[in-house]
Amino acid sequence: MISCLMITQASRLALARLAIGDFAAQTHAARELLIVHDGDAAFHAELCALAAATPAAPVRVQRQPPGASLGRLRNAAIDAAHGEFVCQWDDDDRYHPQRLALQWQAMLRETADFCFLCDQLHWFPARGELYWDDWNRETWPLNLVPGTLLGRRERMPRYAELARGEDTDALLHILRRGDRVARVRDAGWCYVYTYHGANTWDAGHHVAISRAKRYGQARLLQREQALRRHLAEYAPTLGSLRMPHEAGALEIHS
Q: What is the extent of the structural domain holding 172?
């Protein structure tokens, strides 16, 4: 079983609803969602109601004392997980129904301890813009997206007690230790990294990623039909999108 681990807070409830819905739609059957937060009793009750209304797979909610760092909350989620495998499931991102299945199959093929995507979609809803970021441009072994971790729970390092950057710190620990890592390439359509204005990292961080890593016109056009098909499979969809490139923009109405 894969335990998807989601850290959230009261100000992100609307976003968390979408992430919970995407979890419920996953095609990988053996799964659970563990939601960890440090909010008040009212927020806890709201999350429990959402969990009860998600019959497709088990959803559990755990409340932690207030003021914990993101790293500490991630560690609490790992400790409470029931699955042999864990997956980072951020509350403000979107996930295609095949996301878990794709990474799970890659782990099996390569008998790996961990699996990461090497590319992602990067969504700026306020601007209606979408980019396809290629992290494979980074030097090996850092040519992967840290926030897309799926791995064996028994091999998970402890997260540093940081407010941000804790997932990169965990990744570096995994790489230094020499664990076997599977990399899934050219499946960025299955994970949508979202900038909504209240992220852990600011706008400059997000813009810099897509400026340096985005697919150009040729690569987008090669993947256009598949991209349109997969974007239509999100529920709810991302809506009308522009994918800027050096010669203009690809227009998508999903």
A: 2-253
